Amino acid sequence: MDHTVEGTDGARDLASVARTIVDSNLYMTLATADAAGRPWASPVWYAAERYAEFYWVSSPEARHSRNIAVRPEVAVVIFDSWAPVGTGQAVYVSAVAEELAGADLDRGIGVFSRASVAGGAGEWEPEDVRAPAPHRLYRAYAFGHWVLDPDGGPDRRTPVAV
Prior knowledge:
Number of strands: 8
Number of domains: 1
Strand content: 35-45%
């Protein structure tokens, strides 16, 4: 997948790169930490809304779910793992995550279900993610996005507004 997007002035449009990555991938790496700060990373299938809300379904007993319950600050990385060496691009996201309930759950399950149906995985209903069901719906709300800037220095991550 080529994430190079040329702007009208010939410069790379890094916000478009970020949107392309989010739109064209299925899994994100979710980084969490427990109450003591021990890190954990998990790949999760996601649905995105407005590039600021990332939804996934997990067991509340999964390590990343337990971590979110005690420390909601998370990081997300979305990338094409098939990119040839030296050509990869990624979106880095700082976010706050939570298990959804009430109106947020009803809206979020609609977003997740539409993506699931489009991906051939079937429809989800609120009852599928409420107790006593084995899964819950989670959302990471992004407050910062970065991509790699090919013209940047050693730490080439550049903030973007998507």
